[in-house]
Amino acid sequence: MAMLKDITLGQYFPGNTPLHRMDPRMKILLTIAYIVVLFVADGLVSYLAIIAFLCTAIAISHITPKMILRGMKTLIFIIALTGILNMFYTKGEGKPLLSFWNVAIYKEGIVTAVFMIVRIILLISGTFMLTYTTSPLQLTDGIESLLKPLEKIHVPAHELAMMMSIALRFIPTLIEEADKIMSAQKARGADFESGGLLRRAKALIPLLVPLFISAFRRADELAVAMECRCYHGGEGRTRMRSLKFGTVDLWALLTVAALAAAVILLKIFPVEVFGI
């Protein structure tokens, strides 16, 4: 039950920091660029540069590291499993550090596993920053504006943006609903914590049925509310606040461009630290 409360994806934390004031279109584009840079990065120096960039962004946004780590708790198993698989399946040169049965662990495998874990943590933290500092309404406007040119080939930009933002917006709501249902079933004697992994997974089945019913009910209520307010798609709609690129967006763009250039140069001309 505590794990459900730790899921913070989709939550928005209001603020008046430079990151909050950035144009949502720029934030979305820079988040995509950040992910690309992260997968291009190779070597300890590149990752240190990305970590420094992310820590600076977190400090500017006034989002506490504790909040990001709390959201990461639910993904610890996936992160650890990815690292272990990379450690065991990466072959190296020379004598293995540890060998048993048909499994061998090399120095290269440990380095690859550590880099993979760091990459996943940086990836998740970077995407968290987008939703933490951008309201669902701004996110919808930004996605719709970026997808606008695709309307020429009959892609429903407004509808796609609306669906994505509603899905993100309702993640915390569904988590809260699941927490309430779980508490009610625990009060009736349900056990979600004892036994093995398979038994605990089976115990969650009674939780899924009322959760799905609640999700469909909320979707129906939302549809009725939108119809009552004469919602008919993006055609003819105006925005309360128009999207404009500002000085903060320019500085953010230059910073990410400098980071990308540094990572690419370090990939072409690698700099080894501690032999890594």
Oligomer type: single chain
Number of strands: 2
Q: Given the helix and strand composition, which structural class is it?
A: mainly alpha
Shape: flat
Element pattern in H and E = HHHHHHEEHHHHHH
How widely separated are the two ends? Answer: 41 Å
Stretches where pLDDT falls below 50 for ≥5 residues? Answer: none
Main pleated sheet: 2 strands, antiparallel
Overall pLDDT score = 82
Give the helix proportion (percent range). 55-70%
Sequence of strands across the biggest β-sheet: 1-2
- What is the count of DSSP helices, taking H or I runs of 4+ residues? 12
Instruction: Report the portion of residues in β strands.
Output: under 5%
Computed Rg: 23 Å
Blueprint of the fold:
Blueprint: H1 2-5, H2 18-21, H3 24-40, H4 44-61, H5 65-72, H6 76-89, E1 98-100, E2 103-105, H7 107-132, H8 136-147, H9 157-187, H10 197-203, H11 205-228, H12 247-268
Antiparallel strand pairs: 1-2
Helix pairs in contact: 3-7, 3-8, 3-12, 4-7, 4-12, 6-7, 8-9, 9-11
Structure description:
- The chain has 276 residues and is mostly helical.
- The chain has a domain at 2-166 and 241-268.
- The chain is 68% helix and 2% strand.
- The chain is built from 12 helices and 2 strands.
- It has helices at residues 2-5, 18-21, 24-40, 44-61, 65-72, 76-89, 107-132, 136-147, 157-187, 197-203, 205-228, 247-268; strands at residues 98-100, 103-105.
- A two-stranded antiparallel ribbon has the order 1-2.
- The chain starts with a helix and ends in an 8-residue tail after the last helix.
- The model has no long low-confidence stretch (mean pLDDT 82).
